[in-house]
């Protein structure tokens, strides 16, 4: 099950990279946008950890994927409001894409696991 470890590890690494950036947001955005980004990323981490220990992974992974899409838009908004620079936005987008790829792979893996076994 390398997909689950990969997705969790990538998100954890993203949080380690992003949290210091969020702390530098302008005061006008810190308590709205930065807190929302951090909270959403931590919620995704919660969902992925739950999925790793759950038998019913599909719903949790789909919810994590939806939350990840919301995170993409919030980070894009942060860039457009100039709370983060273009270089940080590009790095964030690459990291989020990698997390999404890992979640997608994990979803495909669980779909194959749930197929009926041939007799």
Structure description:
This protein has one domain: Up-down Bundle (de novo design (two linked rop proteins)), CATH 1.20.1440. With 119 residues, it is mostly helical. It contains 4 helices and no strands. α3 runs antiparallel to α4 (86-113). The protein starts with a helix and ends in a 6-residue tail after the last helix.
Summary tags:
elongated; mainly alpha; 84% helix; 119 residues; 4 helices; de novo design (two linked rop proteins)
CATH superfamily heading = 23S rRNA-intervening sequence
Structural class: mainly alpha
- Write the element-wise H/E pattern from the N-terminal end onward: HHHH
Strand percent estimate: under 5%
Low-confidence stretches: none
- CATH topology grouping: de novo design (two linked rop proteins)
Helix count, DSSP H or I runs of 4 or more residues: 4
Question: Briefly, what CATH class?
Answer: Mainly Alpha
Q: Mean pLDDT, rounded to whole units?
A: 91
CATH architecture: Up-down Bundle
What is the straight-line distance between the termini?
A: 24 Å
The amount of helix comes to: over 70%
Describe this structure in a few short sentences.
The chain is mainly α. The protein has helices spanning 2-23, 27-52, 57-80, 86-113. Helix 1 runs antiparallel to helix 4, helix 2 (27-52) runs antiparallel to helix 3 (57-80) and helix 3 runs antiparallel to helix 4 (86-113).
Topology:
Layout: H1 2-23, H2 27-52, H3 57-80, H4 86-113
Helix pairs in contact: 1-2, 1-4, 2-3, 3-4
